[in-house]
Amino acid sequence: NITGFPTSYSRYIVAKYIGNGAKLYGYQHGASYGETKNHSSYYHEYKIADKYHTWGWKINEKDVPAFAIRVTPFVDKYRTLNESVKFDCLIVFGRFLSWNKDKYISKGLYFAKNIDRNKYPDIIARPRKEHRKENAISNLMFLNPYNFHFHSGDRSDTPLVVKQSKVVILLFYPSTFAFECMAVNHPILCV
After folding, report:
1. What digits encode the pLDDT tens for the residues 32-41?
2. How far is the C-alpha of 84 from the C-alpha of 24, rounded, in Å?
3. Hey, how many other C-beta atoms are within 10 angstroms of the C-beta on 165?
4. Residue 22: which of 1, 51, 43 has the closest Cα?
5. Angle of helix 176-183 versus helix 72-80 axis, rounded to 10
6. Strand boundaries in the chain, DSSP class E
7. Model-level pTM?
């Protein structure tokens, strides 16, 4: 992973290999590459790579359409599950950051106030964790008055909660989560 050179030492080692004739191949490690204009990570990774393996698309000369390895664990786990539908809807939030928190709260409240709860009584909300130990559910407490169920945001059981939901509503796109749902043909609405 081209972005995975966190230290000067690792960058030095890679530079030495390249200086001695090694090739540097990049690989798309998340969504939104090729989906959004001027994606800074893509342009940096593309610029320094000899070839750049994508999740199936080709825009520039060095792009090589490849398989989306990142979604494989989700697909494999989803396909082994024999779960019945438990929720009418799974609403998925992105990371709550200082610059987007108000947007997510606004979208979440709009959804909560306007969905027909007689028709759709069982709704579960899932936050996106910044790191494994984070209690991301605290970001969704503004939905408490609407009696939503809450998912922890742990990636390990995400295929299960998707399988248990009739439809996924994703409040951010593009995202790896959207590609995971599309890979298993699970109904998803990205807003």
Report:
1. 666 666 666 7
2. 45
3. 27
4. 51
5. 40
6. 25-27, 51-54, 63-65, 87-92, 123-126, 149-150, 165-170, 188-190
7. 0.77
